[in-house]
Amino acid sequence: MNIEIKEQNGSYVGTLSGWLDTNVATQFLDDIKILEENADKSIVLDFTSLEYICSLALRGLLKLKKESAVKGGRLELKNVQGEVLKIFTMTGFSRLFGI
After folding, report:
1. Fewer Cβ atoms within 10 A, N terminus or C terminus of the chain?
2. Which tens digit of pLDDT belongs to each residue from 37-78?
3. Which of 52, 51, 63, 54 is nearest to 96 (CA)?
4. In sequence order, what DSSP letters do the residues of 65-81 get, joined into one string?
């Protein structure tokens, strides 16, 4: 798994790629702490190259979504597809994130 986070014009854009499984989920949770700290801003996560996501990472996304709601920010997930979309659909996260 690789995540690249950039600040652009007061917003944050993150690009995820590879397998986000339990072996790297803890690192992912650490990586997105900057987003939690800035949850009052617009955050866009691009899943174009993400091939898999585990339940621990889903929990991290849910926490980030809640933090954004509390702080008045916005979290958008883009290009959720393939196996990741299937996981989002099975868990109900597709409805939760408006995918």
Report:
1. C
2. 999 999 999 999 999 999 999 999 999 999 999 999 999 999
3. 63
4. HHHHHHHT-EEEEE---
